[in-house]
Amino acid sequence: MDKRGGMDAEKSSEFCLFPQPKNAQLTVFIIIAVLIVGAAGFYFLLRENVFILKIPASIEPVYNSFLECVGDRVFTGANVLGSQAGYIHLPEFKPGSQYMPFSSQLSFLGNNIPYWYYVSGNNIEDEQVPSKADMERELSEFVEEKIRGCSYEDYYEEGFEINQGEPKAAVSIRDSEISVNLNMDLTIKKGEDSFSLRSHRLKVSSKLGGLYNSAIKVYQEEQENLFLEDYAVDVLRIYAPVDGVEFSCSPETWNAASIFGSLQEAFEANTLALRTEGDSYFSVDVPVSNKVRFINSRSWPVSLEVLPSEGDNLIAKPVGNQQGLGALGFCYVPYHFVYSIKYPVLVQVYEGEEVFQFPLAVIIQGNKPRTSLKESAAGRKSAELCSYKNTPIIVNTMDSELNLVDADIYYECFGETCSIGKTSSGFLEAEFPQCSNGFIIARAEGFKDERYLHSTTEQGSADLFLDRIYEREIELKLDGIHYDGKAIITFSSDEYSGSVIYPEQKKVKLSEGDYQVQVQVYEDSSLSVDAGKVEQCMEVSKGLGALFGITQKECFDIDVPSQIISSVLTGGGTENYYVLESELKNSEIIEIDAESSPKPSSLEQLQNNYISFESKGLSINFK
Q: Are 516 and 615 part of one and the same domain?
């Protein structure tokens, strides 16, 4: 029994040492399987890095050259993105027009840069701001396209065999670096040494991401607060007549071309003075760590308009010398001009030699900054109208002698204007948006704009006849004798007007049409008016009497300031005259003869000159 018992104990000990329960066996196998799979995965994850560490010494320079070439391509692409407002492949180009000179891209030092915000040729506001994901996609495609341009000629001559597969790149743009993951089969051989690798990773030092982030902040600040427009309004009011009053009995005149020249110079200088650091008038409060530069150039496209204007001149007429206003006892010249201004600004965000730049349009409408695009649906209605062009219309453009004229064609409907195209040899067949009683507009250099009423609800055709504009010299006479003193000569019509400030200007641009021709002749004077008070009375309605039309007379005193009238009206007149194109075509000079008036020695005599001026005519001859 003891012996058998001893044997049993021994067997029990053996079973205890070696055999395992079924659950325990399963656990062991699972652990072993996990370790094997993990080891295999770890091997494949690190296999390429291990291989990199074991690149044969003879092959290592070739692979290093490959990585260097990839890095160069990435850095080149990043520079292109920075110089082209975040684009490598530029978006579709949209041209400007005679009506609106902006295109969708700004030409700067021979490089076309897409606007982030601009006004298109048919007066539609538009944005084209790329996202960082867009930039990463374009840079990845750029690397894939350019990687095959890497040169290995020197290594081929040394006996190397280099084979490349199809590349697939993925880049990540960060503030101070660009991470690149390039999947491409690469095999390098020389003699018995061989090396193969598919996945290639590297990091390229670049501030593109940080500069882009700062550029976005500057752009958002402009769109939300319109700080560039605020500076533009300040420049406008300093360098151009906007509104005010001058004490004078003769008109105040300004030349629009001279005003626009001064404004462009001022916009250029003041824009360049803007900074995002410091604490001065020119400091812009934008929280960016990079430096920012703002640039404008007089050579860039610009749209400058002012109303009211008479041709190339702004004329403000005096009050106080007309019939019935003699009680005032003095003259004054009020003026109010309304400007619409559009010009580009190039924003450059930079650090060291790296730059990210984008242009945008600065817009002043009616002497005020435009409405923020973030708060307005500006252009949406126009964009919707112009997007649905589905009525075929044929347009023919010619002059009065049936000579073909190439013109820019627009369509205006309910105050919205769409760019249609340009006639070629006087012909255009194009799709128009549908509209009842809209206007086809033709604009051509050297011709007056032609507006033609035409409904586009059905297909059809339209013939537009453009009147040619002729520039002719004016020869002014006073009482039949050549006059070379001061005068204002105005040609006014419903469709076209022109003015000449004589004798500084002696040429006027006219087309055929019915004009009111007016000449006002002025001479220097030292006529003085003493300070004093003048009683002015008028009939007014008050209280319950106003319900029954009962008025009563009320009088009040006007303080008259002392003044010296330095220029007085001494001649002129008015004449209605229909100008024929044949007269313009067959002449070089427009001779105008006006009648003189006595030089006034008192304010009453000056007023009499203005009264008689209304009844005097003019003699007009073309020669």
A: yes
For residue 172, give every residue at least 6 positions away whose Cβ sits within 8 Å of its Cβ, in sequence order, or none: 136, 178, 179
Q: Looking at 369, 389, 417, which one is the last position of a domain?
A: 369
Q: Are 574 and 518 in contact (CB under 8 A)?
A: yes
Is position 108 within any domain?
A: no
Question: How far, in Å, are 239, 302, 335, 553 from residue 343 at the CA level?
Answer: 16, 5, 25, 53
Which tokens go with 37? Answer: 């799979």
- Start-end of H helices in 84-165: 132-146, 153-157
- Do 327 and 391 lie in one domain? The reply is no
> Do 217 and 311 fall into the same domain?
yes
pLDDT in tens, 491-533: 988 877 888 999 999 999 999 999 999 999 998 888 776 665 6
**Cis peptide, bond prior to residue 503, ω within 30 of zero:** yes
Domain interval for residue 477 = 472-622
Please state whether beta strands 438-443 and 450-454 pair in parallel, antiparallel, or not at all (unpaired).
antiparallel
Question: How long is the chain?
Answer: 623
> What is the rounded distance in angstroms from the CA atom of residue 343 to the CA atom of residue 364?
9
Residue with tokens 């560039």: 228
Q: Per residue in 523-548, pLDDT tens?
A: 888 877 666 565 556 665 555 454 44
Number of independent structural domains in the chain:
4
Q: pTM for this one?
A: 0.71
Q: Are residues 280 and 317 in the same domain?
A: yes
Q: What is the DSSP letter of 310?
A: B
Cα–Cα distance, 105 to 114 (Å, whole number): 4
